[in-house]
């Protein structure tokens, strides 16, 4: 894998992706942050050597390089999921590439469902911890020890200093930022009532189909990482209505400006 990562990084450097400081992964329905970036270079995933290709219709599939709050950033507009048929090493390949290019911090966002009934759709949740229910690990491959420690400590996977900064920014801007545990499932089907009850029982506050693999790899690379969930629906098993995907995407877009305030404020502080 190292050979492929070097090849991909060299290609991106040749396209002007030089010395980025911050990597950003944008989740489903979360693309407005791009409007705040002074874009210098873009690369479509399907043109980047060894890169997976985005297959979900609302993921645009571009790597964007530019300046945001005075910092050089790489933004993943569209991410990869296990439910698209990718392996966990495919899903996390871009994190390894961004790290090879030189990023020092990683910011991750996602759209997720609120399991904690005190949380409402349209609000944000700072991920403080997670539960991996994807049935595998992005570190479970031969030769992983050449790229970092095999047995990665996960006692505090989310960077405490960046989390504290996000709490301060939320307070200063009147943003209702919940904190909680994110459960990552395979999907693409949504959960049953019994599954929502199970998730609540095991301590999940929100559920989604991404993020955790990238967090694991960031920890493997000793790359400080934070993640924010945009809560797009409420998962009350006693009052469950059929899922409306367009409504979820619309809710992500509506709630996104607060997430952008958090991320831009954090980048400015780094």
UniProtKB/TrEMBL annotation:
Residue ranges of every copy of the Nucleoside phosphorylase domain listed in the record: 22-267
Recorded family membership: Belongs to the PNP/MTAP phosphorylase family.
UniProt cross-references to Pfam families, sorted A to Z: PNP_UDP_1
Keyword annotations of the record: Glycosyltransferase, Transferase
UniProt entry tagged with the keyword Glycosyltransferase: yes
GO biological processes: nucleoside metabolic process
GO cellular component terms attached to this protein's record: cytoplasm
Function: The purine nucleoside phosphorylases catalyze the phosphorolytic breakdown of the N-glycosidic bond in the beta-(deoxy)ribonucleoside molecules, with the formation of the corresponding free purine bases and pentose-1-phosphate.
InterPro entries for the chain: Nucleoside_phosphorylase_d, Nucleoside_phosphorylase_sf, Purine_phosphorylase
Entry's EC annotation: 2.4.2.1
Lineage: Bacteria, Pseudomonadati, Bacteroidota, Flavobacteriia, Flavobacteriales
UniProt keyword Transferase, yes or no: yes
NCBIfam families documented for this protein: PNPH-PUNA-XAPA, PRK08202.1
Full protein name: Purine nucleoside phosphorylase
Biological or metabolic pathway of the protein: Purine metabolism; purine nucleoside salvage
GO molecular function list: purine-nucleoside phosphorylase activity
